[in-house]
Structures are given as structure tokens and as C-alpha cells.
Amino acid sequence: MKQTIPGLLLLLAIMLVPSSAFANNDTNTETDTSAAMPDYTYYTLAPDITTNYVTQGKRLGYLRLQVDLMLLDPSMSKLVEHHAPLIRDAIITVIGQQPEARVQSLAGREEIRQACLAKVNELLIAETNQKLVTELLFTKYLFQ
User: What residue range is the signal peptide (predicted)?
Assistant: First the structure.
């Protein structure tokens, strides 16, 4: 009986010690990781872009897509909003030059997305002297 009482007292003492005593109280690691992580934001071009693409034959090909732009800093969204017509025109121009096979394939869609991102960044750097768009995403992609 003498053996179980000290064991119980030890268990009770461990349970009463706050868990923060065992935790790592180094708060600098939490602030360092949050400061190192960028604060991304997304800007959706509205309304959706509807345009034609090159097809073989007499019929027209239509493409409707929704474009989201990933920005490194939320403060850049005002600049992107100001340049939204330029961005839309650049995307429509790139898509208008694409053949039907590229528009309708998954690999071609990725090539178009990369070309749109490059063209948008090229124009925005010329206008604002900074790279505003980190990533360009097609969140809706419908073709006919």
C-alpha cells in the first residue's frame, strides 16, 4: 500500500502542473514564421472573359474563362483593379492567337495560362515598374 500512494501523488502532481510548463515558450519562432510568410490575396477579373479562338473550318470557337490573379500583397489590388482593362486585353489577345488543339487540351491550357501570365506581367512591369501578379489561374474554363 505504501508503494501506490507515492505513485498516485506523483501522478496527481504531474496532472496539476500546467501544460505550458512543458511547452516551448520561445515566442520568437512563431513571429518569425508568420513574418516570413507572404500575405497572398486573390483578385478575380469580373465579368468572365468570353472570346473566340482559331478553329479549322467555318465555325467559330468560343472560350469562356474566369481568371483569378494571385497577388503577393493585398495593397496591390488597387493597382491591379486600375489596370484590369489592360490585363483583360492581354489575355484576350493571347487566347485569340491559339489554335483549337491547344485550347482543347490540358497541356495546351497550361501553356496558354503561362503565356497569359508572362504577357500580363510584361505589361504591368512596363506600366508600374513592379511585378504585381505572382500567379494567374483559370478558375473556370469552358470551350465550345
Answer: 1-23
